[in-house]
Sequence to fold (188 residues):
Amino acid sequence: MYISIIVPTIKTEKEIADLISEIKKTKSNKSELIVVSSPKSAAKNQNIGLDKAKGEFIIICGDDIEQFPAGWDDDLIEGLKKTGASMVGPRLLNPDGSLQAVKYRNYDLSKEFVQVRTMITACSAFRNTHLRFDENYMGSGWEDTDFCMQLGGTFFVINSVKLHHRNEGKNKLLFKNRNRAYFKSKWK
Fold:
């Protein structure tokens, strides 16, 4: 397989059946789909997926993403190659189609590729490496920024690939202060 699409989730198979069906209909033939469903943290589920991945390229896709255009996975990987970035992601939209406010805060729609400081793993593409998510983060939140710090390099949003993100942020607020403190102690 050329691309491994990893969907980390704490939901049941029945709860994500529509998502899996949509990804299967829109992904390229060069992609494998790996769904990791356990009550563990986002980082743990992402790492289980990374350990199973056979692809040269990885796409992490949250279970709260929807409205995938055909070939979205190939488009992300082509953007990764064109930019030479460490990681790329789609332009995230709210379920109503409006621009989503995200932590990288670059809303420039005039260019195909927009450089950002860091990427969120609601949906992102990168090369398969030995790097793994730090499992000391609880729930979800901060593990994606930590992973970007490990990865280093540059990060881009691809404006031509638009995905809708419900931004459910499971357990994000519950562990927000703990995860922030851990991140700051780790990265100074």
